[in-house]
Amino acid sequence: MDTQSYLPVKPGVGMEENFLSLDDILLSHERLPIRTECSFPRLGFLEKSSDSHDIPEGTKMELPLWLSKGLYEKKRRVLSVELPKVYREGWRTVFNADPNVVDLHKMGPYYYGLGSQMLHFDSPENPEIAQTLLQTFIGRFRRNMDSSQNAYNEDTSALVERLDCLEKALFSSGQSGLNSFQSWEKGRASQLTASSLVLNYRKRKINDLQP
Amino acid sequence: MFCEKAMELIRELQRSNEGQLPAFNEDGLRQVLQEMESLYEQNQTDVNEAKSDGRSELIPSIKLRHCCLLRNQRCLTAYLYDRLLRIRALRWEYGSVLPANVRFHMCAEEVQWFSQYKKSLASFMRSLGGGEGLDITQDMKPPKSLYIQVRCLKDHGELEIDDGTVILLKKNSQHFLPRWKCEQLIRQGVLEHVMS
Amino acid sequence: MSDALSDDGSVNQDDSQEDVMTPAELIAKLEEAWLNEKFSPELQENKSEVVECVMEQLTHMEENLQRVKKGDAKASIHRMEIDRIRFVLSSYLRSRLQKLRKFFPHVLEKEKSRGEGDPSLLSPEEFAFAKEYYANTETYLKAVALKRMPPNLQTVDMLKAVPEPCLDSFVFLRVKERQENILVEPETDDQREYVVDLEEGSQHLMRYRTIAPLVSTGAVQLI
Amino acid sequence: MDASEVEFLAEKETVKIIPNFSLDKIYLIGGDLGPFNPGLPVDVPVWLALNLKQRQKCRIVPPAWMDVDKLEEMRDLERKEDTFTPVPSPYYMELTKLLLNFASDNIPKADEIRTLVKDIWDTRIAKLRLSADSFISQLEAHAKLDNLTLMEINTIRAFLLDSLNCLYKLRSNQHPGSSKGQFADF
User: Where in this chain does the entry annotate a coiled-coil region (chain D) (predicted)?
Assistant: First the structure.
């Protein structure tokens, strides 16, 4: 806890977002398929396929997660949210069988984040969704740990490409632990170095000079 | 859809890796504020109509615009706060005087925030240990030896060490200097620590 | 030379107590505080008396070294020790400052709600820093954006916006004084809560929340 | 924690040196050292031993465990047992690196020692990963970790603790409403 360099506000992970986290803002910009359960007068221009003045009740459209969350009400029917495929029963069965074969980046890239956020919408399937998210994380933990620690000295780039955002962040914290240890082993840990920012700005300057 | 401008600001920061500070996007900020103003005005109109004419069917749209207002507020606050975190880190990386190309990317209020932050930090460090003072921007890594071998990466002029000796820091020259005198210069990329 | 550096004057930690610490014990206290601060998710109580005493020791030693001629064999050994202690001290203070900045609204809130006799979380200089940091940041957000927003959107509740420290984080620890019946809360519905005894010298991985009070009493050391 | 900081703590361990100079007792803030007499062994912290060694002021006496026979025994035991066996020093890895780098001429069979310690380390790290995985998959709330060293913990710390945090959040998903969550995020 003694680094003075830039550390962004971390994402909330799970059902709560962190207000100031850029990651959470990007996650909550993911679009969800919804169906309006009432009409939205004077906002027809938001729905590109129609040229009516209002968004009528029963319109199927996509809204970002943050807006769906903001409009959704348990008691009053304002809109209903469709569960993205990857959280439905068919895919849940696949995940439960072997979470390691799934390309979570392609299915996500916010598999855990968006899945947790979906629990805000009162679906009867919520307990199963939450359970699958948890079991998927646990099931993939060993592979992710071993590769982030380079346990097998293999090329990990293919594996990293298949990680979801959350796993990627964990992977890089594992890698930085490994790098710190390896640079210590090589006797480099006590070398005083220029700050990465200074180095980056210098690199940029050099690039600027090149035609 | 609303709030797209605000998302652009967020993406712009997310693309700037390793804490680099992109130019302050005054134009983007203004556009978001304009969108907020117009959302607010539309809502004022609809709220008045809903009240006076009893048009409660307007409520869902009012709510939707209000969500967008809050979203814009969040994005702008997060944009500005994240920039502060980046700017704050600069104090440790560059010392108290920022290079011109970094300052150039800051807006006037950020420059003000930074100079107030520097002041707070300085008076904090001065008052440490019952007023004795300690520079905690030094000693970033465990010490290994009193003196270290360094190479100059650029011409930097003269450097006085504590016994009064003056050393000329000329590009490519090598020196054996007290570690604590070099730390900041190494971080700034003036000197390079040569390991034996 | 040896005379100048040989007074191992003990440090009086607190006048109200008869408790006298040797300089070596003082340094050990600083190192404990350093590791605890590094590894705990939340800010620990301030140890400004330790900081002050250590700085006094360093100043005193540096003054003595001024009187020693250049190239003295002992002087360089003393200087190396000073460097090592100053590193721990700076790193400790940096860790605290980092948490202060990360959690400033919550730290100030906790300080505000502190009872009359409770020990202060922050040293006076840290408190001043945190208050200025809060005001500075609030002023900035207002000036650049908030005051240009519609009237009902001109404030952001910093307590809700800035994330709190996560006390449910796990920590590694070593037990310094044996503890009995530490309640471990279950992780799942089908587990039951149970108690563990923490034997002296044993090491554990568990939730910070469970053992937080033991960190402040010094019964466990975070590692 | 940075590995260099763990090494910093290791440098506080004491080691025996045989000085080739004389010097009175030194009254350091952290305790007294010396006196130093040529040829007479004396205990000093590792940081000082290394400094004196680099200036050719002493010979370092390797700790008793830094010995091929003893380390072979330890390696075999470590491989046989499923649990972490007691280590000869809480800083065995750091001390091996430091002493072999700066005083290999004072340590018999330095290369064999380096390999043996690396073998012990690798075996223990493999066990550490195994226990981390079972800790996660069993959703344990507490683990006893006797005999693990700070450097070993440090290699996995960030990854394991961050993972446990995520796990905690994903587990809390199963009890929505138990969290505070009064703040609607837009």
Answer: none
Give me the CATH topology for the region A84-187: Methane Monooxygenase Hydroxylase; Chain G, domain 1 (1.20.58)
CATH T-level fold of D3-172: Methane Monooxygenase Hydroxylase; Chain G, domain 1 (1.20.58)
Q: Where are the alpha helices (DSSP H) in chain D?
A: 3-10, 46-54, 68-80, 92-103, 110-137, 150-172
Instruction: Report the C-alpha gap between A87 and D158 in whole angstroms.
Output: 29
Q: Which amino acid is at A47?
A: E
Q: Is D51 on the interface with B (CB under 8 A)?
A: yes
Nearest to C137 among B40, B84, B123 (CB): B84
C178-211 pLDDT, tens digit each? 998 888 887 777 778 888 999 999 999 999 999 9
> Per-residue pLDDT tens for B131-178?
889 999 989 899 988 889 999 998 988 888 877 888 899 999 999 988
Mention every residue, 6+ apart, whose C-beta is less than 8 A from residue D34. D23, D24, D25, D26, D42
Return d(Cα B149, Cα B32) in angstroms, integer: 52
Residues 7-36 in C contacting A (C-alpha not used; CB under 8 Å)? none
Q: Domain segments of chain A: what residues?
A: 1-82, 84-187
Q: What is the DSSP string of A30-45?
A: -EEEEEESS-BTT-GG
Q: What percent of chain C has pLDDT over 90?
A: 74
**Using a CB-CB distance cutoff of 8 angstroms, which residues of chain A are in contact with residue D2?**
2, 180, 189
Chain B hits for D2, Cβ within 8 Å = 141
Assess contact for A49 and A18: CB atoms under 8 A.
no
Q: Under an 8 Å CB criterion, which residues of C touch B?
A: 51-52, 54-56, 59, 70, 76, 79-80, 83-84, 86-87, 89-91, 93-94, 97, 101, 124-126, 128-129, 132-133, 136-137, 139-141, 143-146, 148-150, 153, 156, 161
Domains and CATH numbers, chain C: 2-161 (1.20.58.1030), 170-222 (3.40.5.60)
Give residue C89's Cα distance to chain centre: 10
- Average pLDDT rounded to a whole number, residues A78-87: 93
Q: How far apart, in whole angstroms, are the C-alpha atoms of residue C223 and residue C46?
A: 19
- Domains of chain B and any CATH numbers: 4-126 (1.20.58.1030), 147-194 (3.40.5)
Distance in angstroms (rounded) separating the CA atoms of residues B35 and B8: 14
The amino acid that residue A157 corresponds to is S
- In this complex, which of C37, C102, C161 lies closest to A19 when CB atoms are compared? C161
> Minimal CA–CA distance to C220: which of C169, C171, C173?
C173
The two most distant CA atoms of chain C are separated, in Å, by 72
Measured between alpha carbons, how far is C183 from B29 in angstroms, rounded to an integer? 51
What local confidence, expressed as pLDDT, does residue C53 receive?
A: 94
Q: What CA–CA distance (Å, rounded) separates D119 from D146?
A: 20
Beta carbons of C187 and A33 less than 8 angstroms apart: no
d(CA D15, CA D94): 13
Under CATH, which number does the domain A1-82 receive?
A: 1.20.58.2050
Distance from CA of A94 to the nearest CA of B (A): 33
Question: Hey, do A1-82 and A84-187 end up sharing a CATH topology, with the first three levels equal?
Answer: yes
